[in-house]
Amino acid sequence: MIRLENVSYSYPDGKPALSDIHMGIRKGEYIGIIGRNGSGKSTLALHLNGLLKPGKGKVMVKGMDTRDISRLQEIRKIVGIVFQNPETQFIGRTVEEDLAFGPENLCLPPEEIRRRVERVLAEIGLENYRYHSPKTLSGGQGQCAALAGTLTMEPECLVFDEVTSMLDPDSGKLVLKHVKKLHEKGKTIIYITHNLEELHDADRIIVMDRGRIVLEGEPENVLSNPFLLDLGLTPPSLMDLAERLKKHGVMIPWEKTSSPSSFAEEICRLFLKT
Ligand SMILES: Nc1ncnc2c1ncn2[C@@H]1O[C@H](COP(=O)(O)OP(=O)(O)OP(=O)(O)O)[C@@H](O)[C@H]1O
Ligand SMILES: [Mg+2]
């Protein structure tokens, strides 16, 4: 659905932020992107719907080149981005108004706009906040409202750029739950994070460093790769524990490392034969 072919990009100061990126994203895929500060993750995200255009190479979204200005509106309908600071995305005076803004811009009929706003308010659980100013919402509610504002555009693909990094753990879990549900409903997900714990359910993880893709694969293989430490990344604590136990001959299957409870159950099963 999205293809990056030898994409390079430098900001006006001339420093390369992306170097020769080659990647494909399939419809319905759930991709995690990780990498230390300044590795190029956000720059890559901004390329996915044409907010930035490659200096070299090209980005194709469903066969449309992001450098083709006449296709940009269509590309942005297909790929929506949710950023770290929701405040930067709010335009409406109320949550409801904010959710209507995108579809209004697409000049959709009023009844279609209403249908979309109602559906998304219910889907994200924001009905009680519809008349609130988005600026007065808590961090977690605000991030849900920002996600809702993107969803009323009915994008096929959603890019999340560190959306939980400013949130408390519970709010972060709520946002991640919405992300996973959207994936189950068939949306293509690109999820950028510093928190590797969040990527257990991804189909594929891409690791970036200095504007390049340096590692790529299934979470099971990427998250246990010792190379992550060299890149300044901390593996999920349960994966780390499983790797340490492996050295002592205790094998914890990958699927049991998704939560402390499944991990503990497996330990009990192995040692207490319960
Ligand atoms: N607007 C900008 N102007 C100039 N240089 C920029 C700009 N935005 C990013 N850069 C530079 O481009 C490189 C890649 O930055 P980018 O923001 O894509 O990294 P990132 O992986 O998203 O980092 P972080 O984890 O901190 O969000 C860095 O060297 C950064 O300093
Ligand atoms: Mg970033």
List the helices and strands and how they pair.
Layout (H helix, E strand, L loop, with lengths): L1 E9 L5 E10 L4 E5 L6 H7 L8 E6 L2 E2 L6 H7 E4 L12 H11 L4 H15 L14 H13 L5 E5 L7 H16 L3 E5 L11 E6 L2 E6 L1 H4 L4 H4 L6 H11 L12 H13 L2
Parallel strand pairs: 3-8, 3-9, 6-7, 7-8
Antiparallel strand pairs: 1-2, 1-4, 4-5, 9-10
Helix pairs in contact: 3-4, 3-5, 5-6
Bound molecules: adenosine-5'-triphosphate and magnesium ion (MG).
Structural write-up:
By secondary structure, this protein is an alpha/beta fold. It folds into two domains: 2-87 and 154-232, Rossmann fold (3-Layer(aba) Sandwich), CATH 3.40.50.300; 236-274, no CATH class. It contains ten helices and ten strands. α3 packs across α4 and α5 runs parallel beside α6 (169-184). Adenosine-5'-triphosphate binds at residues 11, 13, 15, 17, 35, 37-43.
Strand arrangement within the widest β-sheet reads 6-7-8-3-9-10
Distance between the termini: 47 Å
- The helix content is 25-40%
- CATH level 4 superfamily of the largest domain: P-loop containing nucleotide triphosphate hydrolases
How is the biggest beta sheet arranged?
Answer: 6 strands, mixed
Which consecutive residue ranges, at least 5 long each, have pLDDT under 50?
A: none
Shape: globular
CATH class (first level) name of the largest domain: Alpha Beta
Radius of gyration: 20 Å
